[in-house]
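G., the chain you wanted modeled:
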Amino acid sequence: MALQAFPKISQSARLDDGTSYAFVHVPTVDARKPTFLLLHGFPSSSWDWRHQISQLSEAGYGILAPDLLGYGDTDKPKELQAYSMKKMSGVAHFWPVLPRTILSFSSPLSLYPCLTLSPVLFTTSVPTHFLTPTVKSHWLTNSDAFNALTQQAFGYPTFGYQKWFNTEGAAKAFDRNPQAAFSLIYPTDPEIWKTNFCPVGSAEAWIANDKITPLPSWVTMEENATRNEIMRQGGYAAPLRWYKSAMQGINNADEANFTDEEKLLTLPNLLIVSTQDYATRADMQEQSHRKWAKKPKVEVLECGHWIQMEKREELYQLLVSFAHGLAGVEK
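Predicted structure as tokens:
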């Protein structure tokens, strides 16, 4: 949705393999200030970063916010192999950004600087989880075991929805009931995820019953309409291929060669998690972060999954403070 939602600051580019990507690009106004690479999650587009795009660019920081493969105005290939982490990481060689870049991944939010983009994109699995590639793929390809583990630990399976996401019927159901999809994925009450999203079969039942709730306080009617139009144009089939490719082991061979030492995050980093995210839980994310990141720093906010919308001001302060600490410039 980059081209349509941000026409003055967006562009598209075709890669050597013929894939077209759309992205928001705002150059930094101060060479001492870094550029933020904002990567959205499921099911979204660069539109979910609208507040940060406005705030950070007004403060003079650079912005690069792509519609990831399968989303928004970017291409939506049908073959699952196109969604392998190794293949998609090749995109990083293309982006026309300054060398010093800060990456911000959709909730939970992981921030760290890099000198080149490729290693960071490749060694971080998917935008919505701070897990190393092999750890993430292990649980996606063994979802029953992971759900049994979290059922025992928390009283509900945190990734139960992924079994349905790996079926052909999920995309069709989402497409038929767009507002029910919005109500479930962007819930008014974060507790909905614990009862109606994470448990096996509950997300499918919610969408099939076309259950709709009032909008959360952090989304306007206009924003809701825009987001639904983004998904209406592109559909859910391509975004769900991210899950299918991982769950069906597309990444396994590529990730098998990583040593534990190679998985470690050695750059300065900041993980921002939320207390009421019942899928990508703060306690599990923090535990993984502290295992795989050297000198880990963690911030916890009181909100649900969608930090960049629910706590936009608090997030902005954390982003610029992190950048300030790295670059040594005034906020």
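The longest strand covers residues 20-26.

Shout if anything looks off.
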